[in-house]
Design brief:
511 residues, alpha/beta, 20 helices, 59% helix, Proline_oxidase
Length: 511
C-alpha cells in the first residue's frame, strides 16, 4: 500500500477515474468484451457444476480429529507445547497490534532494546513460523517434516528489491536455495517459492503492468519487448491503475527487463537440475500483471509436455479469479502446455479495498468472505477436473477445513492419487497442523510453506502477513484445542506409566 501511495496522486487519479467511467468503451474494447463474455460462460458453468458434485454428502470423512495420538504422533512433546503456547498468544489481536507497533517504532533504533526484542521474537514466533535462519537450519526442518510424511516448499524471505544490485543478490540466494535441496532426501522438497519482486525492481514491474493494461484495452498499442505469454486479464480485471497511455520503456528499462528475465531463468534452471519445481507468488494488483506476464513467459519456456515446472498463483479473493484461471488454462491447452497453478485466498484485502474506495471505483475484491470461499472452491474444483483429464498441476494452499475437505473428496472421485504428482495441499509452517496431518493420514500429498532467513530480515515480512491475516491467526482455534487435548493425553499417559512402574517396583520389593 505504501508503494501505491507514493506512486499515485489520489486526487488526480480519482478525477480521471470518473472521466473514464463516464466515457463509452471503444469498439476494440467492445470486441474484447464479447470474446471475454464467451469465456466467462465457461467459467460460470464449469466451476458451479463441479462444486455441486463436490458438496454431495457421500459419507466419506476426510478428517479424523478424534485420535490426537495418531494425529500428532510425529510431533515431540516439547515442540507441541511450544506450538500451543505460541498460537494462543498469536490469536490475541492486541498482541499482534503491539508487536507491529514495537517493530515499527523508533525504539528499534536503540541497540539494546532491539537486541532484547529480536531475541524474544527469535525464541517465540520466529521459531514457530520460520523454518530456519539459513539453508542448513531449514534443511533440518525439511528432514523432520519428511520423516513425518510432509514435504517442504522453500521460501527465502526476500522481496521488493529496489535496484539491479539487490536483485542480483536475491537471485544468488534463490539459486543457493535450489542447490541446497540436492543434499536433502529426494522428493522432500517439492517447490522453491519465488517472488518476482526480488528479481525485478518494483518500479519496473509497475511500468510493465501499466503497459500491459494499456495494450489490453487498446489493440493498436504495441509492446516491442513483449514475448509469448498466456492471458493475463479478463473483462472484470481492475484497470483503474492505468488511466492514461504510459510512455514506452526506454533503453535502460528494456535492459533491466532482460536482466530480470535472465535472473528468473537461472533460478528456474538451477531448480530443475535439482528436480524441484518453481511456484511464483502473487502480489497486489498494481504489479500483478507484470508478475503474471513473467510467470507465463517462464511457463511456456520450461513446462514439459506432461509435467508443469513453473506454477503461477491465483488469488481467489479477486472477483476475476475464476475467469482468469479458465482463460489461462484454455489457452495453455491450445498450446499443448501443461499449466500449473497455486490457488490461495489472498493477502491484500485491506489495501486493495482502501485504494479502490479512495478512487471511487468498485473494489476488485469479493464483497464478502463467503464469496471468496465460494470462488476458491470453484477454482479448485475446476482445476481438479482439468488435471484429472490431462497434464497439469495444482497446489491448494489453504487453512480452511471446508475447502480442503471438498477438494480432497473430489480428488478421490477423480482418482488423483498421491503418486500422480498433480496435486499438493499446502499450508504455512506453524499453521493448520491438524489439517495437514489429517490430510497426510488420509493419504494425500501435503507440504508446508517454509519461509526462512535471518530473524531481522524475515520478521517484518511475517508481521505484515500477520497484520493482513489476523483472522487467520485467530482461527487457529482447532489447532490449539487439539494440541491441548494431546498434551493432556500425554501428561495422563506419563503419570499412569510412572504409577504403574512405582507399583511394579513396590511389588518386586515386597516379593
Amino acid at each position: 500500500m505504501a508503494m501505491i501511495k507514493k506512486d499515485v496522486s489520489f486526487k488526480l487519479l480519482r478525477s480521471a477515474v470518473h472521466r473514464v467511467n463516464a466515457a463509452s468503451p471503444s469498439r476494440c474494447h467492445q470486441a474484447q468484451r464479447a470474446t471475454t463474455n464467451a469465456t466467462t460462460t465457461i467459467v460460470s458453468q464449469a466451476p458451479q457444476h463441479l462444486t455441486a458434485a463436490v458438496a454431495g454428502k457421500d459419507g466419506d470423512n476426510i478428517f479424523n480429529f478424534d485420535d490426537t495420538k495418531t494425529l500428532f504422533a510425529s510431533v515431540p512433546t516439547g515442540k507441541l507445547l511450544h506450538s500451543a503456547a505460541t498460537l494462543n498468544v498469536a490469536a490475541v489481536e492486541p498482541m499482534v497490534d503491539l508487536s507491529l507497533w514495537v517493530m515499527n517504532s523508533k525504539l528499534m533504533y536503540v541497540p539494546l532494546f532491539k537486541k532484547v526484542v529480536m531475541g524474544t521474537i527469535k525464541y517465540t514466533a520466529y521459531d514457530h513460523f520460520v523454518a530456519g535462519g539459513d539453508t542448513v537450519e531449514t534443511g533440518q526442518t525439511v528432514r523432520r517434516l519428511w520423516n513425518s510424511g510432509v514435504r517442504g516448499m522453500l521460501d527465502y524471505g526476500v522481496e521488493h528489491a529496489v535496484d539491479n544490485e539487490s536483485c542480483d543478490k536475491a537471485a544468488q540466494h534463490l539459486i543457493k536455495t535450489a542447490e541446497s535441496t540436492q543434499s536433502l532426501p529426494p522428493s522432500s522438497v517439492g517447490f522453491v517459492a519465488v517472488k518476482v519482486t526480488a528479481l525485478c525492481p518494483v518500479y519496473l514491474l509497475k511500468r510493465l503492468s501499466d503497459l500491459l493494461r494499456w495494450e489490453h484495452k487498446n489493440s493498436s498499442f504495441k509492446l516491442p519487448w513483449k514475448q509469448q505469454t498466456l492471458p493475463i486479464f479478463s473483462e472484470t480485471s481492475p484497470f483503474y491503475h492505468t488511466l492514461q497511455q504510459p510512455a514506452p520503456l526506454n533503453g535502460e528499462e528494456e535492459d533491466d527487463l532482460e536482466l530480470a528475465q535472465k535472473r528468473l531463468m537461472k533460478v528456474c534452471e538451477k531448480a530443475f537440475e535439482a528436480n524441484v519445481r518453481i511456484v511464483i507468488d502473487a502480489e497486489d494488483t498494481a504489479i500483478q500483471p507484470a508478475i503474471d506476464y513473467l510467470t507465463y513467459w517462464a511457463a511456456i519456456k520450461y513446462n514439459e509436455s506432461q509435467r508443469p515446472m513453473v506454477y503461477g498463483t491465483i488469488q481467489a479473493f479477486m472477483k476475476d479469479a475464476g475467469e482468469r484461471i479458465t482463460m489461462t488454462k484454455i489457452a495453455a491447452d491450445k498450446m499443448n502446455l501443461p499449466a500449473g497453478f497455486k490457488i490461495v485466498r489472498g493477502a491484500y484485502m485491506s489495501s486493495e479495498r482502501e485504494l479502490a474506495n479512495s478512487l471511487g471505483v468498485e473494489s476488485p475484491i469479493h464483497d464478502t468472505i463467503e464469496n471468496t470461499h465460494a470462488c476458491y472452491n470453484r477454482c479448485a474444483a475446476f482445476m481438479l477436473d482439468q488435471i484429472s483429464k490431462r497434464p497439469g498441476g495444482l497446489i491448494l494452499a489453504t487453512h480452511n477445513l471446508n475447502s480442503a475437505s471438498l477438494a480432497a473428496k473430489k480428488a478421490r472421485e477423480y482418482a488423483i492419487g498421491k503418486d500422480s504428482g498433480k496435486l499438493e495441499f499446502a499450508s504455512l509452517y506453524g499453521m493448520a497442523d491438524a489439517m495437514t496431518f489429517a490430510l497426510r493420514n488420509a493419504g494425500f500429498p501435503v507440504s508446508k510453506y517454509l519461509p526462512f532467513g535471518p530473524v531481522d530480515q524475515i520478521m517484518p515480512y511475517l508481521l505484515r502477513r500477520a497484520e493482513e491475516n489476523k483472522g487467520m491467526l485467530s482461527s487457529s482455534a482447532l489447532d490449539r484445542k487439539l494440541m491441548m487435548k494431546e498434551l493432556k493425553r500425554r501428561m495422563k499417559a506419563y503419570f499412569t506409566e510412572k504409577e504403574t512402574q512405582h507399583k511394579a517396583r513396590a511389588n518386586s520389593m515386597a516379593n
